[in-house]
Amino acid sequence: MPDNSFDVVSKIEMPEVHNAVQQALKEITQRYDLKDSKSTIEVQEKDNKILLHSKDEFKLKAVVEILQAKMVKRSVPLKNLIYGNIIPSAGTSVKQEITLQNGIAVEKAREVSRWAHFGEGGRGYAGSTRWAGYAGTTIAENLARDRAETIVLAQIEDAAALDVVEAIAEVPGIDSLFVGPADLAVALGVSTLTDPAVLAGYDRVAAAAKRCGRNVSTFAATAEAAIALRARGVTSFLIGSELTFVLSGTRAAAEEARKPPRR
Asked: pTM of the prediction?
């Protein structure tokens, strides 16, 4: 059974949403195929929604594609957009509502936790996979392995996630709170992983995890960094990366090759 991980919060920057909408509207006015479509895009910031109108469903879909492209360029996460149905509007026109979800809510975290396991409201059962021994094991054995081996990590990597980390830690089925140190540092407006703001974030995550009996995990560039974080309550680590291992091995080989020949 593969491990499961998910971003708890991906914050939407509303100024970037407005920029993306303005750029999309500009392109729509320049597109020959949309020239007479009477297409509009309206940001309803108070309700966290975007309202789109167009002449027909085909043209509305084209407007959505333009908006998505502009959103990507402005670093607005498309996974945070929830699309309503295309419905009739005034006359023969159509409209669609897009909800801006500012992070995955705690209830969504509960859903993800359920989806990671077999059972009602969770993932569908399959006993013929490699993990299940290609039908060589019983349902009871696989359910027991699912409960024992499946790990759900909630990734905490920005300020918005820290704001709800206590609630996330309380979600049944969450096994570990994984701190993404580089993303967290950038989100907090600092440039080092040992900045006091980042370390305070680790402390808050560790306190929430300890209270709820959860594991705390993170990435550490070196063993020394991992030792320092252990003192802050982190218990599981990804140390280094494939790239650093390859670079280290390559440099060692290069240094060995440069040595004078033995006589």
From this structure: 0.60
